[in-house]
Amino acid sequence: MSHKSNLNSKTPAQSLSHAFLKQKPSKEKFEEFETRMESLLAQIVASVNESEEHYKTHISEFLKYSMRSPEYYINTNGNIDLAINNGKLVSDSVGVIIEAKRPANQIEMPKVNNINVKAMQELLLYYLRERIGSNNISLKHLIITNGYEWYIFQAHFFEKEFAKKYITS
């Protein structure tokens, strides 16, 4: 029996809501973001032989800037590589689960035509632990990244494809 999902690839422009696209950041904010992104990429290139933990630190620092930390707590959470909480406290629910991989570890990274890889399996495991095990209904996004590639999933996709099937079986 084959299972067909509604998973499809979108560009960032296709993914963003039209209302969000109408908001224009100031030139200074955009340039600062661009500088942070360039810095992240330079750090990744400069640390080609480092461990996955090393890369997670760079990604976490980039996200802390991007997420206007300290408005959101960003750190590991159990086995989850990085989690962004729905508030600034460690006790706030997890809203985003991030699975980080080393850029050199391409075999574990998904591809548009093959998402059944270790990074996706780990992301699904962490999602089910958080959603079913911790009864967290506040999850918003799930991300797999190596710093260069970013696979961003809406949590409701995982809810529909995995959690509801698990809960009802």
Question: What this model shows, in words?
Answer:
- The chain is globular, with a radius of gyration of 17 Å.
- The longest helix is centred in the N-terminal third of the chain and has 20 residues, at 27-46.
- It has one domain.
- Strands 1-2-3-4-5 form a 5-stranded mixed sheet, with helices on both faces.
- It is built from 6 helices and 5 strands, in the order ααααβββαββα.
- Helix 3 (27-46) packs antiparallel against helix 4 (52-66).
- Strand 3 (94-100), helix 5 (118-133) and strand 4 form a beta-alpha-beta unit.
- 44% of the residues lie in helices and 16% in strands.
- It is α+β, with helices and mostly antiparallel strands and 169 residues long.
- It has helices at 12-15, 18-22, 27-46, 52-66, 118-133, 155-168; strands at residues 74-77, 80-85, 94-100, 141-145, 150-154.
- It comes from Candidatus Dechloromonas phosphorivorans.
- Residues 1-21 are annotated as: Disordered.
- This is DUF7149 domain-containing protein.
- InterPro entries: DUF7149.
- Residues 11-165 form the DUF7149 domain.
